[in-house]
C-alpha cells in the first residue's frame, strides 16, 4: 500500500497502453513548470525499460523529467523498473523481482517535500496488474490524486473511456476529466468529430483538452500540443483531491 500524495497532484491514466499518457503528463508538467512551480513527476513502475551505462532506465521517466525540469534523479522518479515490456506484475514475476511498494512510497515522500505539485503517470490502463494482488486502480485509490483519462480519438474510444471512468468511479477515484490525444485536425472522421461530445454526454465527463498529433520528444513539445493544454486550469484540478 502507498500513502496519499501529500501535495496537489494529478494521476494521468489512459484507456490503454500507448494512448499518450507520457506526452500528456509531460505537457501538464510543462504547464506547471512555465508558471514557476516546482514540479515532481512520478512513474511508479515502468516496464520495457532500456539498458544504459547507469543501469535500467525508463524512457517515460526521462521524458517526464525533461518536461518538468525535474530536480530529482531518475531512480526516484521511476523507482521500479523492469526490462520486459509487460504488465508490471508479469514482468516482476518473470524477473523474479517483486514490486517494492516501499520504494515507491519513499519516492513520493522525498519528492513531495520539495515540490509544489506531483504529476503521476500510471502504467497501461486502470486494470493492469501491478503485483499479484493489486492493480493500477488500487494504486490510484491510494494516491488520492484526481485522475485524467487520456483517450484515443477514433472509433471505439467511447467504450474504452466509459469503461475506464466506470472502474475509477467504482472505487471513488475523482475524475478530473478526459484528454483526447492525437486528434487529426484535417480529415477527422465523423466518429472522431462526434466522440468527444458523446463521451461528455454518456460518461458525464468533461473533455479537458483535445490534443493534436504534433512533435513530442523529451522536453520538446510542439507548440500545438502546448497550446491545446494551455487553457485548462490544471492547478485547480490538482488541488481538487478526494477528501
Ligand atoms: N500528441 C501527440 N503527438 C505526437 N505523438 C504523440 C502524441 N501523443 C503520443 N504520441 C506518440 O505516441 C506514442 C505513445 O505515446 P506515449 O508513450 O505517451 O503513450 P503512453 O500511454 O504513455 O504509453 P505507455 O503505456 O507505454 O506508458 C509515443 O511514440 C509518443 O511520442
Ligand atoms: C510496456 C508498455 N509500454 C507498458 N508500459 C506496459 C503496458 C501493460 C499493458 C498490459 C495489458 O493491458 O495487457
Ligand atoms: Mg508512458
UniProtKB/TrEMBL annotation:
Please name one Pfam family that this protein belongs to: AAA_26
Instruction: Give, as in the UniProt entry, the pathway in which the protein acts.
Output: Cofactor biosynthesis; biotin biosynthesis; biotin from 7,8-diaminononanoate: step 1/2
Q: Which GO terms describe its cellular component?
A: cytosol
Task: Give its E.C. classification number.
Answer: 6.3.3.3
Q: What does this protein do?
A: Catalyzes a mechanistically unusual reaction, the ATP-dependent insertion of CO2 between the N7 and N8 nitrogen atoms of 7,8-diaminopelargonic acid (DAPA, also called 7,8-diammoniononanoate) to form a ureido ring.
NCBIfam families for the chain: bioD
> What does the sequence similarity comment in the record state about its family?
Belongs to the dethiobiotin synthetase family.
Q: What is this protein called?
A: ATP-dependent dethiobiotin synthetase BioD
Organism whose genome encodes this protein: Humisphaera borealis
Give the encoding gene's name: bioD
Amino acid at each position: 500500500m502507498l500513502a496519499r500524495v501529500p501535495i496537489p497532484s494529478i494521476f494521468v491514466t489512459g484507456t490503454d497502453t500507448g494512448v499518450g499518457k507520457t506526452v500528456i503528463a509531460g505537457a501538464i508538467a510543462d504547464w506547471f513548470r512555465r508558471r514557476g512551480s516546482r514540479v515532481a513527476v512520478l512513474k511508479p513502475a515502468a516496464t520495457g525499460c532500456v539498458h544504459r551505462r547507469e543501469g535500467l532506465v525508463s524512457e517515460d521517466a526521462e521524458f517526464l523529467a525533461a518536461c518538468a525540469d525535474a530536480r530529482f534523479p531518475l531512480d526516484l522518479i521511476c523507482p521500479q523498473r523492469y526490462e520486459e515490456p509487460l504488465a508490471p506484475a508479469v514482468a516482476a514475476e518473470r524477473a523474479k523481482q517483486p514490486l517494492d511498494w516501499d520504494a515507491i512510497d519513499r519516492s513520493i515522500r522525498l519528492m513531495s517535500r520539495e515540490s509544489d505539485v506531483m504529476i503521476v503517470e500510471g502504467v497501461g490502463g486502470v486494470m493492469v496488474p501491478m503485483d499479484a494482488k493489486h492493480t493500477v486502480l488500487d494504486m490510484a485509490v491510494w494516491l488520492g490524486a484526481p485522475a485524467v483519462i487520456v483517450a484515443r480519438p477514433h472509433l471505439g474510444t467511447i467504450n474504452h473511456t466509459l469503461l475506464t471512468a466506470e472502474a475509477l468511479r467504482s472505487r471513488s477515484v475523482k475524475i478530473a476529466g478526459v484528454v483526447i490525444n492525437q486528434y487529426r485536425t484535417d480529415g477527422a472522421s465523423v466518429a472522431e468529430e462526434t466522440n468527444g461530445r458523446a463521451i461528455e454526454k454518456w460518461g458525464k465527463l468533461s473533455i479537458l483538452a483535445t490534443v493534436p498529433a504534433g512533435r513530442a520528444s523529451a522536453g520538446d513539445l510542439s507548440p500545438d500540443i502546448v497550446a491545446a493544454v494551455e487553457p485548462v486550469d490544471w492547478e485547480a484540478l490538482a488541488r481538487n483531491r478526494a477528501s
